[in-house]
Amino acid sequence: MYTERVMDHFNNPRNMGEVDHFNAEGTVGNAKCGDIMRITMRIEDGVIQDVKFKTFGCGAAVATSSMATEMVKGKPVEEALKLTNSAVVEALEGLPPAKIHCSVLAEEAVKAAIDDYQKRRQG
Fold this sequence. Notes:
The chain is α+β, with helices and mostly antiparallel strands. Helix content is 46%, strand content 22%.
């Protein structure tokens, strides 16, 4: 059902937890399936220096959160904003159709955190 890469990110999640002294935070959820993702970031000079996640949900939700953080860590904000759920699925070497919504949540959580960062800078 799940690829080896999905199982690896579920069993050995990368970047789990909360970033110390974060300046960006995004929380998204899907009431239908019960998955909730929270991503925190520390962004300096327009680059994501650190990123971590806390996810309440199924194995695919944990795996997509883990992969998404790996994909944006160290990247400029502009590049991280281009992250798509399709890219997350591809990096995980596939997800069952019923679990694609988890990759959408991962994309949305990353973008919500960056949006929060941009709003904090304007405020």
